[in-house]
Amino acid sequence: MSQATSQGLFLKAAADIKKNETLYGSNDRLLYFMDQGLLFHYAGDYQSSLENLEKAEDVAAELYARSVTNEAASLLINDLVRPYRGRRHERVLLHQFIAFNYMANNQYDEALVETRKVQLVFDAFSSDSELAHKYQDDGMSHYISSIVYETQRETDNALISIFKSVSAYQKSPLKVPDAVNNLAYYRFKRNGREEDLRLLNLAPTTSQDEVEGLNSKDGEIIFIGYAGKSPVIKEAIFSGTYVVGGFISGTYHKAGGEPVRIILPAPPLPTSEFEKLENKEKTKAGTTFHLKLALPEAVRRPSETKSFRILLDSGQQEHNSMVLTDTDLLIEQDIDSNRTLDLTRAAIRVVLRMLTTQYTKAQLEEETPLENILISTGIDLLTDQLERADTRLCFILPKTIQLARIPVKPAKHRIEVFALNSSGNVIGKKVWENVIVRQGEKKFLFYPSLM
Fold it and tell me: What is the mean pLDDT of the chain?
């Protein structure tokens, strides 16, 4: 699959997924439809992409309405028995790619509907009990929304979206792109929004004549490129000791190999054990057990594509793309934000299984030491095998999503796009020979280079 997407064989990859649909399983329907939708989008089949992404949207809505408490089996087995709901950035990008499909088809009313759905997702994040999560908003989504509002001549909403975009970037691991910063500064200046400038503490880094998107009333070609490969998630094995009624301590190794030491308070003792302690009776308090936890860890994949260079009409204009989002940073942020929750769930799960294991061993004790060793070893091995981290992820997402805005006159234009590596060498190319732009129109072009 990775090889096919690197070579641009997106329809072949979609056909392979369809042929092996059962590999996804009933708990991974969101991933199946999202993967298919992305592949069709990359292939330029925007209608098929819409059909699959809207099915993914339906699955996400159904899972959101279902209480997580109904998935109690995951506390005894592992998180893989839960239906995959998508990580936060995936839920946002799902709507973003639906909007991209509509934008590719010049269906801007429908694209606006999706941008508003993204805002509802953000609202759900802000009302979530997990407010400590660092991903509450998304600069790229608001920036794209501002462009769609521009197509509909909704100036006030476009300005509001630009404000939200800069604000979200300022709180994210990805700094505010210069082009977004400068566009916001001069737009607010032009519209007398001095308070917005003050609140965001904006200052320009270039003159207004050089700001993309500021002076494009005649027409505009907007290029959106997908570069490189998003990370994958692998297991980091935590080994440690559980002291009943005390603490859980141990170490796991991150993807780079560096060890991380963790100490957590253990689940509290039941009332019966406290009564035994008070009566100086035999108790489990202070008993130690070895335990193993599996934690998710993001692993970056090497990506050749670094950026894009865009030529208009055989070199009359040359533009370079800017990075709007980076999935490496988003996934690492998500895992970091969920680390305490993942550790707590895993610890509770392991402790419950461990107590069940001790009871099972006691019930199966035999007359000879050898039989007891075999039984205990078998139960311990089975228990360890059950411990798995949730490594599911939409790995067909790009590492970065990039954009360039090209002001044009109403006419027929030729667009050349070059995918560049970190040395500036060309590793891919796409040409549009006849891009017709009418007066005041915005035309969107998409190019994936998932190398």
Answer: 84
Could you give the angle at the alpha carbon of 256 between the alpha carbons of 250 and 262, nearest 5°? 20
Say if CB 402 and CB 324 are below 8 A apart. Answer: yes
Q: How far is CA 370 from CA 361, 367, 375, in A?
A: 14, 9, 9
CB 449 within 8 A of CB 305: yes
Confirm whether 176 is domain-assigned: no
Is 39 contained in some domain?
A: no
pTM (predicted TM-score): 0.86
115 located within any domain: no
pLDDT score recorded for residue 238: 77
The domain in which residue 364 lies consists of 235-298+336-386
Q: How many domains does the chain have?
A: 1
Per the domain annotation, does 371 fall within a domain? Answer: yes
Instruction: Name which of 53-67, 89-103, 360-374 the model is least confident about.
Output: 360-374
Task: State how far Cα 292 lies from the chain centre.
Answer: 27
Residues 6 or more apart whose CB falls under 8 angstroms from that of 212 comprise 179, 183, 319, 404, 405, 406, 407
